[in-house]
Protein: Cysteine hydrolase
Organism: Pelomonas cellulosilytica
Amino acid sequence: MPVLLIIDMQVGMTWPQADVRNNLDAEARIARLLDAWRRAGEPVVHVRHLSRTPGSPFWPGQPGAEFQPALAPRDDEHVVDKHVTDAFTHSGLERWLHARGLRELVVCGVSTNNSVEATARSAGNLGFCTRVVSDACFTFDQTDLRGVRHAAEEVHQMALANLQGEYASIVDTGAALALLS
């Protein structure tokens, strides 16, 4: 039974200062996955980033730290709070999954090259069968250390390439939904 792991789909990710992004339909695809998992009665885990940096939109208690209403967890869905990019670090997520015998993860959310990549790397290293849903993740434009700006889609594709094979399998929404069959 695959667990749907939704990463950092918080209100602050929708604010203009979040910068230029790719996959403008990612939230709709995540909502589609969430609905399918709920209808199938399969486990869903919502990951929430709570920043330790004062003034961050993700500072606890701030509106930006709240889940986006359309993707908010139900009372029976597990919520993991994290303070770093990786959802496994100091969160109890690994223990929660093992206690339930859950070994397959379907990962979606934001940012592809940040929390999604960090979490998928850890999941793969911990032995979980991990799939990252490429069209249900997104990221933002990035400037490299040379000062060269890279488009969000390029950053997204490179992050997925970093994961493919060694840490995770990269799938699209259709392939992720087929796992419920």
